[in-house]
């Protein structure tokens, strides 16, 4: 990876881009996907986890990221591990290492907000950066449900993304669009505690978000956020959207920022700072 992400883009957009263009079975099936390069250092540890979490959607066995100082710092700060010991135990690719599926350069600066059509996470389409919030090829797609959560999109950074959009909506005097159910499910008790400390939990309630305690939810077809009828449309930050997995309705995959923005507009909408001004 090279470059850095533009505003309004997240690691979810990166992996949806990879799924749409690079995750062909002859390259990724039953292989481990390794993410590295100078661009990786611009992504937080939570964002890197999103890439690795969705390697299975690429038909890969797993995803791994090259270790760097940001990772060692996180392991010490968040996990209480000895940084020097972790550095000594880490394994890096050998010089000249050959990769069975080849090496592919992903320029993060070229990534735009992505949305995957219902039925398959590899049917990703990009937004049109020249046309504001418009998502190319899908036009205006009204939604009934916006869902943020799961192991892919319920981490600390993901909740911070939801809070960023909700704060801007609150500043503009907006509530979740009438007729839309916006669910946020915390990925863990630790994440929920952070949201409470930061004031995000109260913010979410204030603007009309329906909060769900940690646990597996709509991603496996359980609990609030699951569609009830085939006519319902969901935009979701979960990791996969196979037909029927999260109810009988149509489910589009998108980033936490896009999911949150869509909850306030009532249609699938790419977000950027100042969008509600």
Portion of residues in beta strands equals: 5-15%
Number of helices: 10
Strand order of the largest sheet: 4-3-9-8-5-6-7
> What number of domains?
2
User: Main beta sheet, described?
Assistant: 7 strands, mixed
Strand tally:
9
Order of helices and strands: HHEHEHHEEEHHEHHEEEH
CATH class of the largest domain: Alpha Beta
Gap between N and C termini: 33 Å
Radius of gyration: 18 Å
Give the oligomer, counting copies of the same chain as homo and different chains as hetero. Answer: single chain
CATH architect. name of the largest domain: 2-Layer Sandwich
Q: What overall geometry do the principal axes of the alpha carbons give?
A: globular
Q: Which class of secondary structure composition applies to the elements?
A: alpha/beta
How is this structure best described in words?
The protein has 2 domains: 100 residues, 3-Layer(aba) Sandwich (Aconitase, Domain 2); 152 residues, Aconitase, domain 3 (2-Layer Sandwich), CATH 3.30.499. The strands form 2 sheets. The protein has a 7-stranded mixed sheet with strand order 4-3-9-8-5-6-7, sandwiched between helices. It has a two-stranded parallel sheet with strand order 1-2. Strand 3 and strand 4 form a beta hairpin. The protein has 10 helices and 9 strands. Helix content is 32%, strand content 13%. It has 277 residues and is α/β, with parallel strands linked by helices.
């Amino acid at each position: 990876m090279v470059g850095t992400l533009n505003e309004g883009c997240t690691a979810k957009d990166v992996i949806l881009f990879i799924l749409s263009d690079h995750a062909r079975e002859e390259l990724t099936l039953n292989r481990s996907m390794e993410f590295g390069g100078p661009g990786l250092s611009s992504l937080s540890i939570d964002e890197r986890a999103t890439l690795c979490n969705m390697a299975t959607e690429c038909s890969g066995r797993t995803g791994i990221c090259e270790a760097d100082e940001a990772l060692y710092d996180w392991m010490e700060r968040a996990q209480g591990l000895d940084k020097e010991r972790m550095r000594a135990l880490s394994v890096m690719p050998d010089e000249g290492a050959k990769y069975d599926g080849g090496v592919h350069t992903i320029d993060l600066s070229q990534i735009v907000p992505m949305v995957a059509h219902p039925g398959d996470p590899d049917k990703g389409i990009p937004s049109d950066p020249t046309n504001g919030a418009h998502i190319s090829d899908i036009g205006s797609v009204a939604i009934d449900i916006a869902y943020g959560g799961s192991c892919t999109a319920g981490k600390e950074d993901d909740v911070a993304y939801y809070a960023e959009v909700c704060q801007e909506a609150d500043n503009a005097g907006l509530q979740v669009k009438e007729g839309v159910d916006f669910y946020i499910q915390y990925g863990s008790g630790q994440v929920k505690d952070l949201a409470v400390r930061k004031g995000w939990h109260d913010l979410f309630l204030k603007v009309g978000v329906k909060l769900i305690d940690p646990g597996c939810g709509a991603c496996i077809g359980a609990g609030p956020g699951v569609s009830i009828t085939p006519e319902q449309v969901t935009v979701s930050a979960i990791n996969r959207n196979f037909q029927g997995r999260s109810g009988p309705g149509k489910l589009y995959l998108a980033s936490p920022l896009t999911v949150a923005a869509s909850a306030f507009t009532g249609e699938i909408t790419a977000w950027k700072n100042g969008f509600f001004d």
